[in-house]
TrEMBL record:
Organism: Staphylococcus pseudintermedius
TM stretches of this protein: none
The protein's name: Siderophore biosynthesis protein SbnC
InterPro entries per record: Aerobactin_biosyn_IucA/IucC_N (IPR007310), LucA/IucC-like (IPR037455)
Limits of the Aerobactin siderophore biosynthesis IucA/IucC N-terminal domain: 78-120
Lineage top rank: taxon: Bacteria
Amino acid sequence: VYFSALNMFRYESSQPITIEGRASKQPLTAAEFWQTIANMNCDLSHEWEVARVEEGLTTAATQLAKQLSELDLASHPFVMSEQFASLKDRPFHPLAKEKRGLREADYQVYQAELNQSFPLM
């Protein structure tokens, strides 16, 4: 795990992260992993907006799980590839899309990756 200029933390390895003494063999969720990093760096965690990042991770994981469960790339391959890129926070764009701020109902209506139609006013 290292500090990057665009993202607070990046994990670069093909090996899973393990925590010595942890009873469960289940993988950590993104929010649990973040909390572990924050707990390991208590002296700095007040600068990291721990709750805000955890909220964003939880929201992103929930939205991604729902979107992937409904994804059908068989029709409209270009549109679907753009929607899939949106699901992955547009990996070739310099900044990820903000995941917080919309109510769940608004997210379902207005986000591009869900392919909903709505009027422009």
